[in-house]
Design a protein that fits this description.
By secondary structure, this protein is α/β, with parallel strands linked by helices. It folds into two domains: 1-6 and 15-95 and 175-258, P-loop containing nucleotide triphosphate hydrolases (Rossmann fold, 3-Layer(aba) Sandwich); 101-170, no CATH class. It has nine helices and ten strands. It has helices spanning 57-65, 87-92, 111-122, 126-139, 155-167, 185-202, 213-217, 237-241, 244-251, and strands at residues 19-28, 31-41, 46-50, 72-77, 80-81, 96-99, 173-177, 205-209, 222-227, 230-235. Strands 6-7-8-3-9-10 form a six-stranded mixed beta sheet, sandwiched between helices. A hairpin with a 2-residue loop joins β1 and β2. The longest helix is centred in the C-terminal third of the chain and has 18 residues, at 185-202. The protein is globular, with a radius of gyration of 18 Å. The protein starts with 18 loop residues before the first strand and ends in a 7-residue tail after the last helix. 39% of the residues are buried.
Length: 258
């Protein structure tokens, strides 16, 4: 485990969280999705969300970015309640970056055209925009495929592109929805290292959810387990796998973190 992440931030300085969900509840019709959800994301922290299918992990991301609004409760970025802020303002003014589980890019454009298209929206100065795009291509080693249409990229290259697109706006908070889904072992390790480097080199605060629990726990400082609309357990990876409620709701008795 130390090969991927050599350190974990177990405590944070006495400063306000960069993001907070306060008493957030949401229903779709008569179906309760989230019930009184509370958690904080601290500056420079990697936070994991775990739980069965349909428990509301992606819904939490949709609430944070502004795609949907909570029935009750507050989404707070810094010291501002952003419940009424549209998606584009959360991206530009509050520096939120989002990498969806599926797609997140223009299929019929090349990798470079994708970066230019999004860059024109986020960065008005052409010189700065071109420098940032060149930096992303170099950072993620995408030079050999920069003129390949996104639809023809490999799974790992597509993930790199989506993360690069999210980073063009210099986000302070990055949301990764199932980044390891349908990827081979070596590509997962590559993405793990990218995520850890974003934390250690750029001090970006990251929330990610994934069903690859071992892969997620290897790079998270702190994680939450959701079940039946609520957070049933939280803690460091070791604390979670030894938590009886987390095992009952999600891990099972045979789960071992290696």
């Amino acid at each position: 485990m130390a090969i991927i992440k050599k350190f974990r931030i177990k405590s944070f300085k006495n400063e306000k969280p960069i993001l907070s969900l306060k008493k957030v509840s949401l229903s779709f019709g008569k179906r309760k999705i989230l019930d009184n959800i509370n958690f904080d994301l601290n500056k420079g922290q990697v936070l994991g969300l775990l739980g069965p299918n349909g428990v509301g992990k992606s819904t939490i991301f949709n609430l944070i970015i502004g795609l949907i609004k909570p029935d009750y409760g507050s989404i707070i970025v810094g010291s501002t309640n952003v419940n009424e802020y549209p998606i584009y303002l959360r991206t530009k003014e509050f520096k939120l970056g989002y990498c969806p589980q599926n797609s997140g890019y223009f299929h019929d454009l090349t990798l470079l055209e994708n970066l230019n298209s999004v860059g024109q929206i986020l960065i008005s100065d052409k010189k700065i925009r071109d420098e940032k795009i060149d930096s992303m291509i170099s950072k993620f080693e995408l030079e050999p495929v920069m003129n390949v249409k996104a639809n023809h990229l490999s799974g790992g290259q597509k993930k790199k592109l989506v993360i690069a697109l999210a980073l063009l706006g210099s986000p302070k908070i990055l949301l990764l929805d199932e980044p390891f889904a349908a990827l081979d072992i070596m590509t997962i390790k590559m993405l793990q290292k990218i995520i850890v480097n974003l934390q250690s080199e750029s001090n970006i605060s990251i929330i990610l959810c994934d069903h690859a629990a071992r892969d997620l726990l290897k790079i998270c400082d702190f994680s939450l387990v959701l079940s039946n609309c609520k957070i049933v357990a939280s803690g460091t990876p070791t604390e979670l796998i030894n938590n009886s409620e987390a095992r009952s709701a999600y891990f099972g008795d045979s789960f071992i973190l290696r």
